[in-house]
Amino acid sequence: MADFLLIHGSCHGAWCWRDLIPELVARGHTARAIDLPGHGQDATPYQEVTLEGYARAIVDAIDTPVTLVGHSMAGFPISLAAEMAPDKIDRLIYLCAYAAQDGRSLVEMRAEAPRQPMADAAIRTEDGLAFRVDLSKAPALFYNDCPAEAVDYALPRLCIQAIRPQATPIRLTDAYASVKRSYIRCDDDRTIPPEYQRTMTEGWPAQDVHAMPTGHSPFFADPAGLADLLTQIAKG
């Protein structure tokens, strides 16, 4: 069985894996989640949050090798964690996430997508260093197919998102390339266009690219189905 470490995306925290963790445990795995700096219970000021800090928090949370799952924005910090400590990671799994590319930032990759669903939903702070998500638009963006209870649970927990880690180009070498990787595309995603998720995985081996019919938050929309797919991927 696998040891899963789950990493949340923008404006979220470890709390978003609430429904997935027990499903993974029920299948015989171990599973846990952490808050990245400035998210959830971590009180790091957003002005001090960096991409390297995200990745270091992930690496520091690993004692023995894990299957590292990154949702959405977390595609970048899990990639950098693999660059920093490839021996600590059995496999990277990108869950409707940005599949980081050497020399590019998440901001650059997001701008490359054919549509920009987040453009009208992100509200910048006065200093321009972070943004919040318009709570009136978040349900349609993040949780379009999720149970109402899960949406009610999530909305008050959404936090401010530092821009600096998303605007920082990532550097990836053979260390990163040595780690196995898989991708889970979400075909009803209203945040990262599914067609761009396809673009990001062009050239990947077919057996390493999977799909779910959900929106951007399958951990709420279909936690059992996601746990089954993660189990399949972890078995290799």
Short synopsis of the structure:
Helices cover 33% and strands 18% of the residues. By secondary structure, the chain is of the alpha/beta class.
Let me know the number of strands: 9
Which CATH class?
Alpha Beta
**Helical amount:** 25-40%
Overall spatial form: globular
Would you tell me the structural class of the helices and strands? alpha/beta
Number of helical elements: 11
- How many domains in all? 1
What is the fold-level CATH name, i.e. the topology? Rossmann fold
CATH superfamily: Alpha/Beta hydrolase fold, catalytic domain
Distance between the termini: 11 Å
H-E order:
EHEHEHEHEEHHEHHEHEHH
* Low-pLDDT sequence parts: none
Domain AB hydrolase-1: 4-228
GO molecular function: hydrolase activity
Keywords: Hydrolase
Protein name: Alpha/beta fold hydrolase
Task: Characterise the protein shown here.
With 236 residues, the protein is an alpha/beta fold. The protein has a single domain, classed as Rossmann fold. Helices cover 33% and strands 18% of the residues. It has a six-stranded parallel β-sheet with strand order 2-1-3-4-8-9, sandwiched between helices. The chain has a three-stranded antiparallel β-sheet with strand order 5-6-7. Strand 8, helix 9 and strand 9 form a beta-alpha-beta unit. Helix 1 packs across helix 11 and helix 2 crosses helix 3. The longest helix is centred in the C-terminal third of the chain and has 12 residues. The model has no long low-confidence stretch (mean pLDDT 98).
